[in-house]
From TrEMBL:
It comes from Paracoccus fistulariae. GO terms for molecular function: aminopeptidase activity. Residues 439-533 form the Peptidase M1 alanyl aminopeptidase Ig-like fold domain. Its EC number is 3.4.11.2. It is an enzyme of class 3 (hydrolase). Keywords: Aminopeptidase, Hydrolase, Metal-binding, Metalloprotease, Protease, Zinc. InterPro entries: Aminopeptidase_N-like_N, Aminopeptidase_N-like_N_sf, PepN_Ig-like_sf, Peptidase_M1, Peptidase_M1_dom, Peptidase_M1_pepN, Peptidase_M1_pepN_C, Peptidase_M1_pepN_C_sf. This is Aminopeptidase N. Residues 220-434 form the Peptidase M1 membrane alanine aminopeptidase domain. Its cofactor is Zn(2+). The keyword Zinc applies. It comes from the Bacteria.
Amino acid sequence: QIVQYLADYRPYPFLLSETRLDFTLIPDATRVKAVLSLAPRDPDTPEDLVLDGGAGLKLIALTVNGQKPDPAHVSREEERLVIAAAALPRSAFTLETEVQIDPAANTTFEGLYMSGGMFCTQCEAEGFRHITFYPDRPDVMATFRVTIRSDRKVLLSNGNPVGQAQGMAEWHDPWPKPSYLFALVAGDLVSISDSFTTMSGRKVDLNIWVRPGDQDRADYAMESLIRSMKWDEEVYGREYDLDVFNIVAVDDFNMGAMENKGLNIFNSKLVLASPETATDTDYERIEGVIAHEYFHNWTGNRITCRDWFQLCLKEGLTVFRDQQFTSDMRSAPVKRIEDVQALRARQFREDAGPLAHPPRPDHYEEINNFYTATVYEKGAEVIGMLKRLVGDAGYAKALDLYFDRHDGDAATIEDWLQVFEDATGRDLAQFKRWYVDAGTPHLDMVEQWSADDAGGRLTLTFTQETAPTPGQPDKPARVIPIAVGLIGPNGDEVLPTRILEMTQPQQSFDFEGLGARPVVSALRDFSAPVILTRRIDDATRAFLLAHDTDPFARWEAGRELAMTALVSLSQGQPGGDDYVTAIGELIADDSADPAFRALCLNLPGDEEIATRVFSLGLTPDPDAIHAARQDLARRIAQTHQDLLARIYDRMQVTGPYAPDAEGSARRALRIAALGLLNRIDGGQRAQVLFGTAGNMTERMAALACLIRLGLGDDALAILHQEFQDNRLVMDKWFSVQPMAAPPDSAVAIARDLAARPDFEWKNPNRFRALIGGFAANHAAFHAKDGAGYDFVADWIMRMDPVNPQIAARMSSLFETWPRYDAARREKALAALERIAALDGLSRNTREMVSRMIA
Ligand code: B3K
Ligand code: ZN
């Protein structure tokens, strides 16, 4: 069966209480013995025992209660092993298997594989079936006892260590878990260690395991872990539940990190950092992802998902929690603006194209294709709305009930919503649409002002509409919490933030007794993931940018000023004067947070402009968009030359580097100023900064500036010389070149880089750095002659047989193809069709490409 449907769910017909595993680790001939304690769920209805198992498993031995079953009762199918009901006892029994696998030949980085000489696993979503035969589904939960035999020095698995001898280690995980949370690591690693005492006074050993030589770059990850553990106790009342928490850094990893019980495995780029090698953004991500994986211990592990359709149950909630954490650790407004920018760039884009799907999809072919911005980031937004609607106290009550009621369960979105209904008494039937419907609602706001005796009345009329998405032509109205505030003509707030609850396709809200007509600040804090349109002129936007008390809405006003100007310029019309004036006033305000000012100063990227142009019913022209953005940036630089130069000088941080909110805010503003000044100073400042800065944040920014001017060669050579042995820095080196290059030279640059011997393309980070870096250059990827599409398609085709997950993920770079002009569409479609025609194309990439072509 190719397509999996949510509606087909049925519980596994067997109960599994304990899983015992015994690994003998040999790179090309690892043996895995598994002992499963099973029992029929309903002894009166005999069922075949179906175990998942990939084609790479070589079955060595199989017994049921110690006896070999009659071979006629055992069938090996392509991806499963079936033992006929006739060969199974009617009560509890033990199934023993032994398989041989070849981790050294595993290039997919799924299941058990090798990275730099160490053994390592990745099991979510369905990797465990490449390790042994097993009911590889999240609702089958068991305790695990694991023995590892290997000559590697450090042997790790989930849970608590229970035995250690020469060449051997034993682990026991007392918390029942699904197979996707299993992990094993064996390598010659070193650790940095610390400890944490939980709120009930238990001491937990904390270790971060890295390759020898990397241990001085793991401190920040450790500090982040300790902060996360403390925060989850204080804010959610959640305590850690094992004696030890291990984190391992791995160079070859398909995504960011993985929350395996008690043994998180991380892409090394999300663990290792030093001021000389990592940027402020890297530090912030490390803190956020360490927190995210740690928070999964409760939202994901203790309470897991019944099936993979429920993925956003754990991911949306855990993203929401990590966003709250970062807001508390750093600046809440800045975090909110960053999150909205990311949501718009990745999720709105997804929602508006052929890959649109609901946060809880109801069918899929390959679940790995659904670890998306919609499941993660929109999943988190939906929880944010829920919290707004029930209030902070209601949210806290519901979460307590969730942990209470569902600890140890494999739960569903229905369970989650039920908890909110029971805790708050609210009916969430309509709210559920956010989980089951795809697409971003368009929300239109019309203001009506009538002066009367009692003062004035303002009526806000909202209309919501969601365009059809694949498989979902009709979109009923959703509940939309709209946060609104009113600001008087003198700039004072006359109505503090209030939540309007919209439930109808069209709905009006009145505000009475107002003295004079106020300015409306709408969708404060981005209270719902919608696209808001309103009729508003530049002067009013500039007023909001100057006076709004809500930082998000204030930033948004400036963003809209810039965006309308850029759209207009890209259509060959004038625009931007109001923005240039307003931004000058804002950045001159030294009392405002430098990070906020930096966010306001950074123009929307080409891709975001293209998205806006398209949503206005126009066809984006990548070259015109690029030129418009260049033009506006140059005008800002020219107009505010002195102010920007002053900011650049004043924002220099003296003293030792610290990756905290304050230091990174100053650097962010300084770099934003540099990016503009660079357009008129011939690269002078960037040249100096690259040579003198002691931190990677400023050096990378300077380097990008130089590349943009075609002056990057010396700096690139210096960086290469200095860091050729540091993979993470070299990834930056590979990505910044095609990303910052002038669009007409980017394809050639990317091709040259791809031909280098140190383009180790099978390493996912390196592949993403170059191919993803190139595609981030919007006008280059969408080059008229199709060269950008072909370059990316060629590499997807090369990657597909080696690592289908990475190939499939990269293919989504094409998801916006339908919005461009006919000539570009034709080229993009040809590239997609070329991929589709590849012999032996993986299920992963096939599903993605066929959804995009459909
Ligand atoms: N749960 C993992 C992601 C697994 C991706 C599988 N293709 C990391 C996370 O979201 O925390
Ligand atoms: Zn997660």
